[in-house]
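Give me structure tokens for this 75-residue protein.
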Amino acid sequence: MTVNMHEAKTNLSKLVELAAKGEEIIIAKAGKAVAVLKPYKLKQRKRKAGLLAGKPLDMSSFNKADEEIARLFNS
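Here you go.
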């Protein structure tokens, strides 16, 4: 669908709803396409299982933060 700039400003909410449903809207100025309004798709990267497999975990400071928080609240 192609709309002119004035129509796009007037009906922005409706056009955004159409775009959210998957429609691509071309916005034109003086009959020339200048922008595209299209649905936003969140890019999700696939998680790799076992990313830290075989790597040693340093647990020496695991409780350190808890001790610091306890000290701050108990003082």
